[in-house]
Specification:
The protein has 21 helices and seven strands. By secondary structure, it is mainly alpha-helical.
Length: about 550
């Protein structure tokens, strides 16, 4: 809706396409046209304009303010989160408030010079006044520079013309101890979330008295009074406790949903804003490596992949969906927080869990840290940046520049792996059977009497060595099938020992078959490896490690 100004109508500078909570003041850049208005609180500034007590608008500012407005509309249209846009608008208001306070011009011809003057003020604040850190000063200037670069159609960022410099990232490797501590804290936090979810059943929330007791596996107890305070009268508490509706019990419901949301983010790697906007679907699970691709069910065709989860998380997720359906049968949101005061469904929660963690001796792991830990865990486990980037829904460049944390432990493993492969002095650590080992033979417990003993000389002995490790790839499965073929030749050419005792070849063949059976039954991807390996062997396409020996047997 346009407003009347001294030189005509003021165009609409609001954001009608953005939803706001009932108690929130919608964004409006109109105040930037009035001297001193941007330095007021949002409500007071809006009230002044509505009451026509803000003074006359400065119409020479209108082209700049309109350009700011177009920039923010573009950010919203491109999918930038409402929180990020709100922060940028707040910084823009602070910039205009400084302009008003100092009395600088604010129009198309002078805005660049005014910005440089403001940047010098930021330098003075962090160098002399010391009420602003260098990084904060740069971030403030960079956010306004980003707008003005578009407004003024600059080829280089305006912030580079200032004395403000970005913070240099000194990415030091995380030590083994620190890395283990970080993972330990994350696991403890995950157990805490699981304890909350397990304790807050529909029955405990809606049918039991207060306080609701949440037992923690760490040994602590969280007594949740559902918003009740001891200063209230006892009779009032009896009435309060007797009310089993969501009007009273919603804090417990929101606590469970908050825990489920954090667990979901840690499992899927989806950011918090996306997760909050997700709607309930008829989920369809498709096996994929060690987990599931979760799609929206579409009749006669596959829906798009919504997210990917580990297989261990599926039972927990399905329990949550059943709990959620029982309490919110009419809601379409996957995480239907009970909002009070007119809050929006997509607004971030207040993180009650974060406030409780210090008193329980736990470290709160934010959604961003959960995603970061997941990415680095996947990278450490796979050692494949491309695969990890695909699973985390990032480009390889974003993964390595933003998420990857240098790790002494991972670097040490990679160095050891390199030299184990290329240094002849370490060739003894290369196993003589398919798989991996450390070159230190040690029999497993319960090894059969007639089984080959591990000695790093006979390949069959590796099958009963406690230091031997299977490898999760096709090449290992192919080599194992070929090794099994050699054992079959050996079984066919030798007679079983007397007394029904199985021979070493028979025991080895049984061990190999058990390994291949595990691969075939673990998931479809590994089953395809086993089937392909058998097809190759039937076609006479043998693994390079055993090709010569197999041909020798066939030529006898």
């Amino acid at each position: 809706m346009n407003r009347e100004g001294p030189s005509g109508l003021i165009p609409d500078l609001t954001f009608p396409g953005v939803e706001f909570a009932a108690m929130a003041t919608p964004w409006d850049l109109t105040g930037m046209l009035y001297r001193g208005n941007s330095g007021l609180g949002v409500r007071e500034a809006a009230a002044q304009i509505a009451a026509r007590s803000a003074g006359p608008p400065i119409m020479s500012r209108l082209p700049v303010v309109q350009a700011f407005h177009r920039f923010f509309l573009g950010q919203i249209a491109s999918g930038i989160s409402k929180t990020s846009v709100g922060i940028a608008i707040s910084r823009a208001r602070n910039f205009v408030a400084y302009v008003d306070r100092v009395g600088l011009p604010f129009d198309m011809q002078s805005v660049e010079k005014t910005f440089l003057h403001w940047a010098d003020c930021l330098v003075h604040r962090h160098q002399v006044v010391k009420d602003l850190s260098p990084d904060s000063a740069y971030q403030f200037a960079a956010s306004i520079s980003k707008i003005l670069d578009q407004v003024l159609e600059r080829s280089s960022p305006l912030v580079t013309a200032t004395r403000l410099k970005p913070k240099r990232l000194h990415r030091t490797a995380v030590g083994v101890k620190a890395e283990k501590q970080s993972l330990t804290e994350t696991f403890e936090f995950g157990h805490f979330l699981a304890d909350i979810c397990g304790a807050l059943t529909v029955d405990s929330i809606m049918n039991r008295g207060l306080p609701v007791q949440i037992d923690l596996r760490s040994g602590g107890v969280w007594l949740h009074w559902c918003g009740w305070h001891e200063k209230h009268f006892q009779r009032t508490f009896e009435i309060y406790e007797a009310d089993k509706s969501l009007r009273i019990r919603y804090p417990l419901v929101n606590l469970r949903i908050e825990a489920e949301l954090l667990m979901f983010i840690g499992q899927t790697g989806i950011n918090c804003t996306q997760a909050l906007r997700m709607r309930l679907s008829r989920f369809q699970y498709a096996s994929h490596i060690d987990g599931y691709l979760v799609r929206e069910y579409k009749p006669r065709r596959k829906g798009p992949v919504l997210f990917e989860i580990f297989k261990e998380y599926r039972p927990h997720f399905e329990r949550y969906l059943k709990w959620r359906d029982e309490l919110f049968p009419d809601s379409q949101m996957l995480f239907p927080f009970v909002r009070t005061g007119g809050g929006l469904e997509s607004d971030r929660p207040t993180w009650r869990i974060k406030k409780k963690c210090p008193s329980l001796g736990l470290t709160f792991v934010s959604p961003r840290e959960l995603r970061n830990t997941r990415v680095n865990w996947l990278l450490r486990r796979s050692s494949d940046p491309d695969l990890t980037a695909e699973m985390a829904q990032h480009t390889r460049e974003t993964l390595l520049e933003v998420y990857d944390r240098p790790s002494q432990q991972r670097a040490g493993v990679e160095v050891l792996r390199f030299w184990s492969k290329h240094d002849p002095a370490l060739s003894m650590t290369t196993p003589i059977a398919p798989g991996k080992c450390d070159g230190q033979p040690e029999p497993v417990k319960g090894i059969p009497i007639s089984a080959p003993q591990p000695d790093c000389i006979r390949p069959s002995g590796c099958l009963w060595c406690s230091h031997h490790r299977d490898v999760d790839d096709f090449d290992y499965v192919w080599a194992l099938v070929c090794f099994g073929l050699l054992k079959e030749y050996e079984m066919n050419r030798r007679h079983p020992s007397q007394g029904g005792q199985p021979t070493a070849a028979e025991l080895s063949m049984g061990r190999i078959r058990a390994k291949l059976k595990w691969f075939a039954e673990s998931n479809p991807a590994r089953l395809a490896w086993v089937e392909e390996a058998h097809v190759r062997v039937e076609e006479g396409n043998y693994h390079p490690s055993w090709k010569r020996l197999i041909h020798q047997f066939n030529s006898r």
